[in-house]
Amino acid sequence: CARLQHPHILTVLDSGEANGQLWFTMPFVEGESLRDRLNREKQLSVDEALRITREAASALDYAHRHGVVHRDIKPENVLLSDGHALVADFGIGRALASGEQRLTATGLSLGTPAYMSPEQAAGDPNVDGRSDIYSLATVLYEMLSSETPFSAPTSQAMIARRFTDTAKPLRQVRESVPESVERAVAKALSRTAADRFATASEFSQALSVAPTVATTASAAVATPTPVRRRMSPALTTLALGFLLGVGVLFAWRRSESGKNDIGSRVIAVLPFENQGDAANEYFADGIADEVRGKLSALPGLTVIAGASSREYKKTTKSIDQVARELGAQYLLVGKVQWVKDANGTTRVLVSPELMQVRGGRLTTRWEQPFNAAMTDVFAVQADIASKVASALDVALGDSARRAVAAAPTANVAAYDAFLKGEAASQELSVADPPSLRRAIGFYEQAVALDSTFARAWSRLAFERATLYFNAPPTRELAEAARVAAERTRLLAPGSADAALAWTSYYSGVDHDNERAHEALESGLKAAPNDVQLLGNAALIEQKLGRSDAALQHFARARALDPRSAVTARRLSTTLLYLRRYPEARAAADSALALAPTNLSIIEDRAMIPLAQGDLDGARAMIRAAPASVDQTALLVFFAAYQDLYWVLDDRQQQQLLELPVSAYDGDRASWSIIRAQTYFARGDRARSRIYADSARLTLTEQVRAAPNDGQQHALLGLALAYLGEKSQAIQEGERGAQLWPVATDAFAGTYIQHQLARIYALTGEPDKAIDILESLLKIPYYLSPGWLRIDPEFAMLKGNARFERLIAR
User: What does the pLDDT look like over 285-311, one tens digit per residue?
Assistant: First the structure.
């Protein structure tokens, strides 16, 4: 089962045959088995038992979707590494698909009697994933009660009991078990497979929604600017967010002490030091990024993502402290300088050093200076990666050697333009259109110089799709994004670059999350450790309502990118949507510690008290923003995203109303709708109508340019509602909801429903508005009874008996 690559499956690294003997290798796991722990502790806390079960369920769901049933789930085969589950020993598993060779003979009662499903015990040759669900439920029952549900003196008696007896309800054994967990376990232990959960994911979800007694609530990457798009900045495009995890995320809780649950050879490539002209800084960064990318493709080596490593650019921290914070055993550092030789030829000097950190001691494993002509820079990068792999005893097969040796382009000038685009992209704290256009310009230079530069085409597609989503949409920009994506696919079919290009296009332009998911699956096969793809996969799967799968990808991305403020912010957003406020606050505070001036993080942190009905607490968070934060940008951001103009205090609202349209990158639709809302909330209905009419005119043109954009229709409906155009406002709002339904997009769809509720409230349809609000309170979203109590946008509903009951929860 070497094809099963999942964060909660003990991976088979390699296998073969030698001297007539079969062999295979797996990673060494530092920890213990679940059996060892149960022998020592007998019972686990409810929270711990549920977490382990959900992690194992995510592994089984992945295996089942890839055609493999485990058939021997038991505590001995669940390993605990740093407290988190790894499912091991698929040794008696069998292929699900009838066309594949089965891994064991069928018609035999293979497995462990205490944990076998009835059909497996009976020797049924057609056992499927539901048999593993039964076994996992048995393991959970034992973790909670200290015994299996059908314990008996002999194996035969155990097997007989499951055909004749019903397991004792868990709450009779342990009162602290939530009723929903008891029901889920009973269903999973059904004697007939058809009566159980259809998938391990369904079983996990049934456990995930259960409240526990131990906790009050218990998840190229840019944040968009406050232009046009007014959904949560964590949720707008593929580039902009990943994840809605359920349960406690193990990667978030990883220790800072240097332990790492992602492998024993973990390396971080730190930014190389530029020793020449400051204008060449981007080139030194590019060399480090390229080496990091080559190492990431090697089996048996885990490479910390660039977002976390770049945090240590020009750091004053010691090497061992950096290693501890990143959870890395090895650090690759380097120095880069451009020089002119006697012939006037530009040469690049690179001095890399590989260091090992062990027990607080530093040792150099390898170092070697390189002096090469600029045209040979790609060979230098490949040579560095190869030498590092050799120093770490990573064997390179033919395919790995080819991957390391491959150059992204043969054109040095195109590569130089590409690196400038990468530097521009990484400098973005928010994806404002001017900055996006600057990055796009460099990528366009790169492909103009080398039309076969696949990675540059991929980044061009990505940035164009991001710009399309964050600026007034045009057919020309949509087509340009599609052309760049198509070019990437032609040049690098099946690659991570092609997956990134098409995912950004399908999600950001086409709004087709199913096709985006297909593109991601293809990309992750080629690059299973690509953090950007993992993050995008988590977002898309959450959009599709697949929270368990999103959690899997988020956990892996978090382990590979442990110091990413963006990841921490997305975790806080997710927890806010799950209404787990203490955890959301802790995550947001951690994100702020990493990036105190990030507007998205500041807003996320302020939304947590809002959800708890605390307007003063939210305003205090805004006032606490560092002095270095651009106050104009801050005001516009809050007004544009989540429509939080009303959270600003009186002085800030007055400042907001004084800002020109240029503060919104010239987007008159955003400028005018925000002014219409703010004047309306302040009681100036005359000015509100004036600016609502301006918004109507601009949004009408934008809807013509993007007729299938659900959010544009919803915003047009909102403008019409402020104008009192009831029938047209409702028509546009409902059209937006039809185009972007919650069923196909759990992120954008909820926001559109929120806007439709506002339209109904403004146009005198309180019952329809409350119907929507009631539904939004039942699913993950940031609205809450506390929020609705203080939100002036729904003040007109106060006094309505249904609304009063809603906010009194």
Answer: 888 888 888 888 787 788 888 878 888
